[in-house]
């Protein structure tokens, strides 16, 4: 898809990857970009900084009716949505002891929000015979997330939702992509583990949100399903599929390194 003259919506768009995506789409000539996020003040600030071809909407993507209202409002104000980016996501930092409330919230934000978006935007796209759905999962959705069981589970599910949508609607003019970055310098990562600790352990370092946005723009142009801003993730994914026991052992060693670094022990 060419982004010029297109209307795009980006949830989780007030900062981090979402904000970088909105900026990149505008740089590519999008006619209008709507940034949607939970906090009204952050939405207003983001939209103002991005200029007059951008507007903001405060929305809780965990609510089905709120996502439907978002889509209806954008279509009424700006016309059909060409690209819907379901980017909002949260973590918990919890393991098997995660509360029912934490599971319910992360399931709705990290999984059902993608379903709600597709439900709301697909009728118009299917009627036109074209449209683009892009969901942000994570490398954790292909691999795993050390220290966060609900995040690992829901990001795997987010990838599955994207795959199902591609299989089901690809022949009807709908293009689907799934973004699976590894370490990106965002508030989500900083709050989860502390950026300095992650940089110490992950030899490839962290990407900036703008780097991810550049990879996304290129992949949208090529209409690729799996968007991997960290190319090494493809190799990790291959290893996981071909030799799961070896991969699990490697992840256990990585976990030990991360925990050792966080505890102040030297990185082995």
Features:
268 residues; alpha/beta; seven-stranded parallel β-sheet
Query: How does the overall form come out from the CA principal axes?
Result: globular
Structural class: alpha/beta
- Strand percentage: 5-15%
Sheet with the most strands: spatial strand order:
3-2-1-4-5-6-7
Per DSSP E runs of 2 or more residues, the count of β-strands stands at 7
**Low-confidence runs:** 193-201
Number of helices: 10
Largest sheet: 7 strands, parallel
- What's the Cα radius of gyration? 18 Å
Description:
- The protein is built from 10 helices and 7 strands.
- The chain has about 270 residues and is an alpha/beta fold.
- Helix 2 (about 40-50) links the parallel strand 2 (about 30-35) and strand 3.
- Helix 1 crosses helix 8 (about 210-220) and helix 7 (about 195-200) crosses helix 10 (about 245-260).
- The termini are far apart.
- Mean pLDDT is about 90; it is low at about 195-200.
Task: Give a quick rundown of the structure.
Helix content is 54%, strand content 13%.
Secondary-structure map with pairings?
Elements: E1 7-11, H1 16-27, E2 32-37, H2 40-50, E3 54-58, H3 64-78, E4 83-86, H4 100-128, E5 131-136, H5 149-169, E6 174-179, H6 187-192, H7 195-201, H8 209-222, E7 226-227, H9 232-242, H10 244-262
Parallel strand pairs: 1-2, 1-4, 2-3, 4-5, 5-6, 6-7
Helix pairs in contact: 1-8, 3-4, 4-5, 7-10, 9-10
């Amino acid at each position: 898809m060419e982004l010029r003259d297109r209307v795009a919506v980006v949830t989780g768009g007030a900062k981090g990857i979402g904000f970088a995506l909105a900026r990149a789409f505008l740089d590519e000539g999008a006619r209008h970009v709507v940034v949607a996020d939970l906090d009204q003040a952050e939405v207003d600030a983001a939209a103002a900084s991005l200029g007059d071809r951008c507007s903001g909407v405060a929305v809780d993507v965990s609510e089905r009716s709120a996502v439907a209202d978002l889509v209806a409002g954008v279509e009424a104000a700006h016309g059909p949505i060409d690209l819907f980016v379901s980017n909002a996501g949260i973590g918990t930092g919890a393991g098997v002891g995660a509360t029912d409330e934490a599971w319910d919230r992360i399931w709705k934000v990290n999984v059902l929000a993608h379903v709600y978006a597709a439900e709301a935007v697909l009728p118009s796209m299917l009627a036109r015979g074209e449209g683009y759905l892009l969901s942000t999962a994570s490398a954790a959705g292909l691999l795993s997330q050390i220290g966060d069981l609900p995040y690992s589970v829901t990001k795997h599910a987010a990838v599955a939702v994207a795959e199902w949508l591609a299989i089901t609607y690809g022949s009807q003019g709908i293009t689907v992509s799934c973004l699976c970055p590894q370490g990106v310098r965002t508030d989500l990562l900083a709050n989860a583990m502390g950026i300095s600790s992650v940089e110490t352990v992950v030899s490839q370092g962290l990407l900036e949100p703008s780097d991810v946005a550049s990879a996304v723009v290129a992949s949208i142009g090529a209409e690729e399903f799996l968007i991997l801003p960290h190319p090494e993730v493809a190799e990790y994914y291959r290893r996981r599929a071909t030799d799961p026991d070896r991969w699990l052992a490697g992840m256990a060693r990585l976990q030990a390194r991360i925990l050792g670094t966080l505890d102040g022990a030297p990185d082995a």
